[in-house]
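## retry 2 of 3
previous attempt timed out at serialization; input unchanged, resubmitting
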Amino acid sequence: MSSPVPTPQGPAPFLTIHTAVVLLIAGVIGLVVGGLAFLSGGAVAAAVLAGLTAAGVSVPVLRSLIG
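## retry succeeded, writing output
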């Protein structure tokens, strides 16, 4: 009788699929909001700040929505 051979386990992934999807969608939301803020006539710095704020605020919301 031979004993079962254990399958080798690789290292854990750097990001889970859930985290990658949440960050990707948050990045898209940030780009859209920043682009719209820039196109509305705002300064570049204000558009970047609006995009970063929108991306940061959307992460907890997306984390709870995408389960």
